[in-house]
Amino acid sequence: MTGSSQTALTHLRWLEAESIQILRETAAQFARPVLLYSIGKDSSVLLHLARKAFHPGPLPFPLLHIDTTYEYPEMIEFRDRFTREIGAELRVYTNREAIRLGANPYDFGTAKCCQLLRTQALVQAIREGGYDAALGGARRDEERSRAKERIFSFRDRNGHWDPKTQRPELWSIYNGRVDPGEHMRVFPLSNWTEMDVWRYIALEKIPIVPLYFARPRPVLVRGGTLIPYQPNVRLLPGEKPEIIMCRMRTLGCTPCSGAIRSEADTVEKIIAELQEFRRSERENRVIDHDQDGSMELKKREGYF
Amino acid sequence: MSAAPEILAPALPLAHFLRQPGERSLLRFSTAGSVDDGKSTLIGRLLHDTRSVYEDQIEAVRKSPINRSGTAIDFSLLTDGLRAEREQGITIDVAYRYFSTPRRTFIIADTPGHEQYTPNMATGASTADAAVILVDVRKGVLPQSRRHAFIAALLGVPELVVAVNKMDLAGYSQAAFEEAAAAFRALEPRLRGARLTFIPVSALEGDNVVERSPRMPWYGGPSLLEFLETVEPQAAAAAGPFRMPVQYVIRPRDGFRGFAGQIVSGRVRPGDPVLELPSARQSRVQRIVTFDGDLEEAVAPMSVTLTLEDELDVSRGSLLAAASAPPRLARRFEAHTVWMSSEPLSPSKTYLLRHGPLEVQARAVQLRHAVDIETLEPRAAETLGWSEIGLVVWETSRPLAFDPYRDVRGNGAFILIDPISNRTIAAGMIEAAVEDPDEQRRQRRRPVFRAGRLTAGERRTRSGHSGALILARPDSEAAFWLERRLFEHGADVVLLDERVVPLEPLLRAGLLVIAPPDSECRGFPVVALPEEAGADPERAAALVLEELERRGVLIPRDAFLSGEGI
Question: What DSSP string describes B416-444?
Fold first, then answer.
């Protein structure tokens, strides 16, 4: 046990090395891989790792954004600018049919709206794009049902996830064999925690959407939740937006993701805040509270 | 064309990647257990007491209608996963949990302990640096504790921590702890060199889990968390021989060819001589390329891109290895194999074997024995079924460059895939290469000639002789003299360096074969070079010629003995 501190990687370098190995396996094992880019902090870390994995070559796969059309304008602006800067190929997919039918969280309910604009859109995009692997930034620490998720997560022809058909995953040897029509969801950040993601963003100075940083924003206070005010958010009778110092902990659609009161306007301050902050990040996503175990139900249907 | 000159970033020192004081390292450990042994409570306690559980999660557990603990919070609920399991109160898969302290980040692979879940335990142990084995102080070493210890040892986990649990129910008694520890220590000879550490704990009360317990003053060792914070098993991989399986070839433009992979063992610097396997061709490392700049050194488990000084044929599935410590290269090897399919091992089936990035076909040649997971003793078996472990001799379609699993964990493991269902059906840990008797026979049988339609008589008429074996050391002066004289005679003569079996096809083709003295043949004349040949090789050669003529092998010719030829 002597001198061993000289050989142990820091935990972030260890996680980085593992993620790069997974990204390279995905590029090598699949004919048509794609990286699901949600513009959020986890996606930003994933994209950064992908650039590292194939340096000095270009990314060997395109980026795919599932655009619900309810995203914050800052997200779209960031997406277009950043992907252009790094020379990545960006593909955008929207469930046009559902939008045409008027899908929105108020009239359809959050569960149904999410099912149509995220889950179904993703399954359609993968099918239409003929992708056999979709890289995503999901982490196992996000929600209890994700604790058992594989790094290579098998999806059947309908894009469905079945806990019983998942393949055993030993060492860092991944079985990416799929038949036509089936695909693999690949999660290179499986072993990262929210704190790891932030520490890595600080270490590597990774650009992220400004919505993560606190500043005074017009919000609607609903129960304990702050809903950033956007033109497409419907007001309740008598409701008026207030200006509150706040930031987004996770990014989602404008009507369904809440902000938190915060003074943290730098990555370092966010990390300090998180160290004191003992509430899980998904709590601010309205969608997860539909029913107990709702994330597991969504996953079975193909949600990320 | 040669590579365009590049502006290189200054080489980064390795320290950039290594843990400095005040930074965290990472440890992966496995746990296994069943409903009543307190494992979920122990993990829940570790998560809770290191403040790794969010308040809303604790609130959800506090509000849960289920509480099996008899205390305010049922910690076991914090770690239960899928809905069906939550309802049944059991865990049926590997669940990964995360927590950290200022010194370290931890990844727990949490698995069920029941016998039929051997594959889950093996999966959890495969990536673990340490295994926490739970023993109920009142019940001693139950089969599932033993099973977990054996599987962890088989999967090469270097550190086994035995948490002797429920000390609160044994009055925190030292005698009870020592009795349980002694019973466990009896297993040590079968634990393949894993290090053992014993800690008395009460998961329910929190004794010696995070903080040292004042209720067991007789125990002077660390708490479970203190132990996990200080154990350093990653050093073993860094100290091993350099190994990097090539996952991907990066070729962005003319001239640059980078071999991307994760170093599974050892360290590497520019200038180091390396071998490409399976070709065994040698080159030197030219650069260690990363996004952050070139490195002056890299160490396991970093993911890097190497360039080589020479143009070797390197592709996905190649292994780059230290030239000074090459791996084994073989098509046949024996491996402890954990069977994970309900369809049993079949000797007539061809499976896909994935060893790092290399995928080859594989066939089970022999099941040497199954391993009784209750005792780790071998037992006779016809096949392997779900959850069984056996020592299997595998043969692959192409040679594998591997190290025995116990020497280099990252280069001795493989998985097996069913080529029809695409499912992962087994995992293997290579013990050793196995000599392949068929392969040896094939080697010896070469060269193989068909008889053809020419008769021995036709050959004899044309060449002036028939087939015969001449025994002589093929590197001796006399052998060379003999070869020369026979050639001058117009004879068809060959010198064989090694003993070849069988020789008959060569002799049937009418050749005069000079072969090592231990060679054998049936049905053809055999003449040995005289013992004293070394003193006068020319004379010895002449004696052999005379003998061949006397035996009717050579057709006598006057010109022959005078050495003029025809």
Answer: EE-TTT--EEEEEEEEEE---HHHHHHHH
